[in-house]
Amino acid sequence: MKIIPQYKNKILSLPGEVISEKLPTASKDELKVLLAVFMEHEFELSELATKLDMTENAVKRAMNSWEKTGVIVVEKEKTSKKSTKSKESAKQDSSKSTSRNDNKVVNVDRSTLPHYTSGEIAAVVEKRNGCSELLDSCQQILGKMFNAAETSIIVGLVDHLSLSNDYIMLLCSHACSMDKKSVRYVEKLALNFFDNNILTYSELEAELRSIEKRASVENYVRNLFGIGKRALIKKEKEYVSKWTDSYNFSNEMIELAYEITVAKTNEPKLSYANAILENWYAAGYKTTSDVKAAEEEWSKNKAKSIDSSFSTDDFYEAALMRSYQSN
């Protein structure tokens, strides 16, 4: 097959030899950043992250990955004119920052995983107590023998992010429970949690419980509302997260809101169910028993507590009960 490029106003020139070596293992984010930085050599990190719909740390990781291959060099910000540092000390600082890779300036932060050579991997395994056993355990959990790139990722989690062995094994176990037995997926999880300051085993354990609970409720909601196998959109995920994490509602509460929604609208509308649940939460109802008790009380007193201008056709039970409680 032959491809004929169609050039217009902008032409990108890329170092093909180096890129071709990394291309088989390059991630989507790395490819997006590579094209973006070759289109615009100077940019604000925050603006580029927004443009690519990525976090700033994700952009940094991608740039660092290409920098390690020698494709790009990331220059540090120029020293302010107000700086009192002498030219001589600046030269000394520059020589200290020179990397082992042809004088490249490498900007690595703790949320970026570097690439480890086989020699560097061996050094970390020898230096870090239990690292060898960790690699064996992770391979057993994920059910595969690691290649050099996968081993480098696990070593990076230990050496660069300073995550504990138990933390990393829990990540691997969670990946398996999600049916994603990929070291790359484990890396993605680890970096995401690191960016969100989830650094200890207990913090990770609590976060994973929350994630697994949301996943369980998402499946329940998908079946209840007849959504099928399609993934929930962002707004729908926000609903489920609020119902589980903020409101701590049970499936029974969600089901009751679903029944009222269908009765009032003749269709399973998540937005309508969300309005019902919001009202219940604001009124302090935690269980279906609370809701039914309040509904019964409202029914007994609606003539006294509800303004005659209100219509039950326009306001579902939860809103009316909330109004009743405020009177």
Explain the overall architecture.
The protein contains 16 helices and no strands. By secondary structure, the chain is mainly alpha-helical. α3 crosses α4 (56-69) and α9 crosses α10 (183-195). The protein starts with 15 loop residues before the first helix and ends with a helix.
Blueprint of the fold:
Elements: H1 16-22, H2 28-39, H3 45-52, H4 56-69, H5 87-96, H6 118-127, H7 131-142, H8 148-159, H9 165-177, H10 183-195, H11 201-224, H12 234-246, H13 251-265, H14 270-283, H15 288-305, H16 317-326
Helix pairs in contact: 2-4, 3-4, 6-8, 7-9, 8-10, 9-10, 9-11, 11-12, 11-13, 13-14, 14-16, 15-16
What would the keywords be for this entry?
single chain; 327 residues; mainly alpha; 16 helices; 63% helix
* N-to-C order of helices and strands: HHHHHHHHHHHHHHHH
Taken as a percent bin, the fraction of beta residues is under 5%
Low-confidence stretches: 78-110, 308-316, 320-327
First-to-last CA distance? 75 Å
Please state the average pLDDT score.
78
Helix content: 55-70%
Enumerate how many helices there are, as a single number: 16
Task: Provide the structure class.
Answer: mainly alpha
Radius of gyration: 28 Å
Tertiary shape: globular
Largest sheet: none
Q: Tell how many strands the DSSP assignment holds.
A: 0
